[in-house]
Amino acid sequence: MSSQTEKELKRQYLDLIAEKFDSEEKVATEIIHLESILDLPKGTEHFVSDLHGEYHAFQHVLRNGSGNLQQKIHDIFKSRLDPQEMNELIALVYYPEEKIKRIKNGFNTKSERHTWYEKTINRLLELVKYTSSKYTRSKLRKSLAPEYTFIIEELLYKSNQFNNKKDYYDAILRQIIQLNQADKLIISLANTTQRLVVDHLHVVGDIYDRGPHPDKIMDTLIDYHSVDIQWGNHDVLWMGAYSGSKVCLANLLRICARYDNLDIIEDAYGINLRPLLTLAEKYYDDNEAFRPKKHPEKNPSESEILQITKIHQAIAMIQFKLEGPIIKRRPEFEMNERLLLDRVDYRNRTIELNGKVHPIENTCFRTVDRRQPTALLEEEQEVMDKLLTSV
C-alpha cells in the first residue's frame, strides 16, 4: 500500500469518527471505555432448548437463571440468614408480586411492615450490587426501571465513610415507604436482579410444539433484553404455515388437536376453525385412537373431547393426503415409506409393510377415494383455503 493511499484511508476513517465525536477528548473517552470493557469478566450466557410451548416452565427457568440466582443469594447471605429466611428471599426475587401479597397479609402492625420493607430493600440492593459487579455502571443503569433509576443508584453507591449522609439515605428509604412505593421498588429490584444474572439468552430450537402457550414465550422473547434464536423443526412448521404451506398448516393443526391445544389457534392467532369442525362433524365419529391427550390445565367435557377427536381425524387425513404429492414430486426426500394411503387395502382394512400384511384398527377413511387416495375432497380443499385465508 502506497503512502498516499494509506493517508487517504486514514482521512476517511477520521471523517467517519468525526460524525459521532466532535473532539479529541470525546474520542479518547470512547476508546478508554471500549478498551476497558474488554477486561471485564464475561457476562453469563444462558442456553435453553426444546421449550415446546411450556410457558410457565420457561418463565421459571428465566426467573432463576437455571439456579444461578439462588447460588448468588446463598453466596451473599449464607452466614446471615437461616434456611427459612433464605428461601423466603429466593421466592421473593423469583416471584416478587405474588410473594409480596402473601407476606403483607401476615403483618399485625404498620411498624412490622415498615421494618420488613427496610430490611428487604437493603437486602435486594446488596444482591443487585453483587450481581452487577461484573458490569459497568452504564450497563447497570440500563437494567434499572427508569422511574427508580435515581433512587436505586443513590442507595447502591451510598458511602458512610464520613458519616455525613446517613440521614439522607434513611430519608430516602423512609419516603419510599411513606409514599407507598416500596412494593413497586421491591418488584423493580427483583426484576433487575433477574436481568443481571443472565446477560444473554440463547434459545436453541422448538419454541413451538405440543405446549399450550408458545405465543406467550414469543412475547417474552420479543421484550427480552438480549437474545438470539436458532429455529427448530416445529418453529419452521409454523413459519411454513404462515408462509402459505397447506401441509405445514395441516400438520400443526393435527399436533394441536392431539394435545388439546386448538384454543391457541383461535384465541391467540384468531384463526376460525369452524369450517374444519363442520367438515369433521359431517364425516367422522368417535375414535379412541384420535382422542386428545389429557391437558394438565384443562378439564374438557365429553362433548368437547368428541369434537376434538373428530377434528383430529379430519385434519390427519388432510395432512396425509397433502403429503403424498409432495413425496412423489421430490424423490430425493427419500420418504416413500410415508406413502401409507397408497398401501392400504380399504376393502379388507389391511396395509402391507415390508412385505407383511397388517390389520388396521381405528380407521377413519370415509373421505379417502380408493382410486386416488391422496386426492382432497372438494370440501377438504375449501376448508384448507379458508384456513389459509385466516392465517
Description:
- By secondary structure, the protein is mainly alpha-helical.
- The protein has three domains: 1-39; 45-200, no CATH class; 245-390, no CATH class.
- The chain contains 18 helices and six strands.
- It has helices spanning 3-20, 24-37, 55-64, 68-77, 83-94, 96-104, 110-131, 137-143, 149-156, 166-178, 182-197, 214-223, 233-242, 246-258, 262-268, 274-283, 302-329, 378-390, and strands at residues 45-49, 200-204, 227-230, 344-345, 350-353, 356-359.
- The strands form two sheets. A three-stranded parallel β-sheet has the order 1-2-3, with no helix packed on it. A three-stranded antiparallel β-sheet has the order 4-5-6, with no helix packed on it.
- A hairpin with a 4-residue loop joins strand 4 and strand 5.
- Helix 5 crosses helix 6, helix 7 packs parallel to helix 11 (182-197) and helix 14 (246-258) packs antiparallel against helix 17 (302-329).
- The longest helix is centred in the C-terminal third of the chain and has 28 residues, at 302-329.
- The protein is extended and about 95 Å long.
- The relative contact order is 0.08.
- It is an enzyme of class 3 (hydrolase).
- It holds the Pfam family FBPase_2.
- This is Class 3 fructose-bisphosphatase.
- Keywords: Carbohydrate metabolism, Hydrolase, Manganese.
- GO terms for molecular function: fructose 1,6-bisphosphate 1-phosphatase activity.
